[in-house]
Backbone:
């Protein structure tokens, strides 16, 4: 297995500059270790994504950092406050949206917002102002007077996050925020998250959607069996996994045999009349392959480029060989 990318905390050691930092966090339930000494360093105003299969410990990490449960070992600071010593200050600085909506379907969207304002002990006029601003910001004004039970999944998610923002948190924990949403609603949620970060909010995101982490996160950590097995930017993580290649397919057996002779480093698939050549997919490497074919007077019928993506990283680092996947590919016709 590839070596993990160095985490920011290991490279600079300035935990005090982080919105969230943790060292050696541990949590067990009975004889099952859920978190086995994880370290984190999340700069303010960034998006951090925690990836992992079901049961990896993602939600447990969020619950500990948001003071919902206590750790068995290690220490952590959120918004500059120790989660064990000053939990109340941590709660005042954060917002949390779980996997399942906290919206009360029996009351209206506006009433849900006002209830949250009351829970934050906001004065009545300030609560109404915040409610009106957030309902407009999240495009919920028309539905504000309707029972939340009538909202679509995407609307409930927007309302959920709007409720989280009533207290103006500096750090938001989003635990699988787009679970169950259709693709359009998921993309709308991404836009909301980008907007939060552009406003200076720090987002701690847990997700199983690899495209989501790739789209949103400044840094990504992969959690498996309670341990962070790799951390870095999306591009850094992709470089951990070998396997980039170009695939050439032919319909003419003679052309296939000639190409096999011209491209000696290629792996043959005689049944499919296809060749696979190791490559990082750069224009220079593609030009070299095509020049070899041109020199031999050969033309491929199809050229497919495959470069490792976060799917490959996830499956390689978590050994998830039991789940089918479809790697992202860019296709173009050879000349």
Residues:
């Amino acid at each position: 297995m590839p070596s993990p990318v160095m985490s920011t905390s290991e490279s600079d050691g300035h935990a005090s500059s982080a919105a969230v930092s943790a060292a050696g966090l541990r949590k067990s339930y009975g004889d099952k270790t859920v978190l086995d000494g994880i370290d984190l360093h999340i700069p303010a105003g960034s998006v951090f994504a925690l990836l992992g299969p079901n049961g990896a410990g993602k939600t447990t990490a969020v619950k500990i950092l948001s003071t919902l449960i206590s750790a068995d070992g290690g220490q952590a600071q959120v918004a500059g406050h120790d989660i064990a010593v000053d939990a109340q200050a941590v709660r005042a600085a954060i917002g949390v949206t779980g996997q399942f909506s906290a919206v009360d379907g029996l009351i209206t969207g506006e009433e849900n917002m006002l209830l949250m304002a009351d829970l934050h002990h906001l004065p009545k006029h300030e609560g109404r102002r915040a409610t009106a601003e957030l309902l407009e910001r999240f495009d919920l004004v028309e539905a504000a007077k309707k029972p939340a039970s009538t909202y679509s999944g995407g609307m409930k998610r927007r309302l959920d996050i709007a409720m989280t923002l009533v207290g103006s948190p500096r750090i938001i924990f989003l635990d699988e925020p787009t679970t169950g949403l259709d693709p359009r609603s998921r993309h709308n949620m991404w836009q909301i998250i980008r907007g939060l970060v552009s406003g200076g909010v720090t987002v701690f995101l847990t997700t199983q959607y690899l495209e989501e982490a790739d789209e949103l996160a400044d840094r990504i950590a992969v959690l498996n069996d309670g341990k962070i097995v790799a951390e870095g930017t999306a591009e850094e993580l992709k470089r951990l996994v070998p396997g980039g290649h170009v695939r050439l397919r032919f319909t003419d057996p003679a052309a296939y045999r000639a190409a096999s002779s011209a491209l000696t480093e290629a792996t043959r698939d005689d049944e499919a009349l296809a060749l696979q050549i190791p490559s990082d997919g750069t224009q220079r490497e593609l030009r070299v392959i095509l020049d070899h074919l041109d020199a031999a007077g050969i033309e491929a019928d199809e050229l497919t480029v495959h470069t490792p993506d976060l799917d490959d990283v996830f499956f390689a680092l978590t050994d998830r060989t039991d789940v089918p996947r479809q790697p992202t590919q860019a296709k173009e016709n050879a000349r």
Observations:
- The longest strand covers residues 18-29.
- The two ends are 38 Å apart (CA to CA).
- Residues 183-198 form the longest helix (16 residues).
